[in-house]
## 1
Amino acid sequence: MRNRPLFPLTRVAGAHWGMARTVTLPHPHLIWLRSAATLLISAVIGQAGFAAAAIGRDKSYFLFHAIGAGVTLTLGIACAICYTVLRRTAGPVLLWLAWATAAAIIVQFVLGKLEIADAHIFLGVLIAMLATALTSWTYRHPAPAE
């Protein structure tokens, strides 16, 4: 049992040793949907971070939060459009969830512009939950039948 490798190695094409495995990519529709959901949840999480920093001691983060609001709004609408274009792959639940998230982000943007902080913060938490559900369910979604 001396010098036993942790993973069994096999000879692959080329002059080096490596693990033999095949990589299969998901269906292109799923790649688009997963990418859209991942970009959206990244923006939402970033907005939460900028908001937390701005509520703290450093008010300069409000500028980043304001810029991020436009980015998040754009990504939310683009994500909903992506799910609409690929609605046969996405299915009705993910389509509804994408548009609900986009609608909540639009309302959130207006609340921020009107400086209604209490509803803005509450809706921000709801948006984080919606984006998480959208991303999680998108990654679990099966590939479309050809």
Note: Residues 89 and 145 are 9 Å apart (CA to CA).
## 2
Amino acid sequence: MVGKVATKLISSFSRNIETVFFMLLYREITERVLNYFPDKQEEFLKQFGREGARRSCDRHKTVLKFAPEVTDPEKVKEMVEFLWLVAFGRSPTLDYSIENEQDYFIVTLWIDECPVCSGLPREDLKAKSLDIFKNKSDGYACILTGLIEGAAKFLLDLQGRSEQIKITESKCMLDGHEKMEIKVKFGKNIDK
């Protein structure tokens, strides 16, 4: 009976069991944070991702030696792809663009599949906390972007780089966008 239910659950999501588990765990974490930190949930969740990544990276420095050294915008894109592969077990399918500012550049990534919501409609996730993330600087994937940002900062420190990096989800599939959009600001003065 349990096997049939699990199989039906997996096939209804069209994903493997790890993805379903990750989605449900992510939803529960956001719900709990909403209950305990109603005014600063986005900030808390982003920091949760950063700190989790930093601790994990500290334990797995050997894997990070294979990461591309970040020297230009193309390498920033490669670094995000590498960290995505390490975190989620597969490379993202994406398109990207690069904007040059005076002291930094912005790499915009359009990713075909979000590991957090997998492109499911908002109502199918049945999470009351989702509306909190509308019109915020980060979307529902703020733990995920915090995780990649934290790992990227760790990697930059490991490589002896002094640049800053900030990663945000600017378009969320839960809000009806065709793709997940992530913006990566990288350079000397990214807070201008």
Note: The helical segments are 2-13, 17-36, 41-59, 61-64, 73-88, 122-125, 142-158.
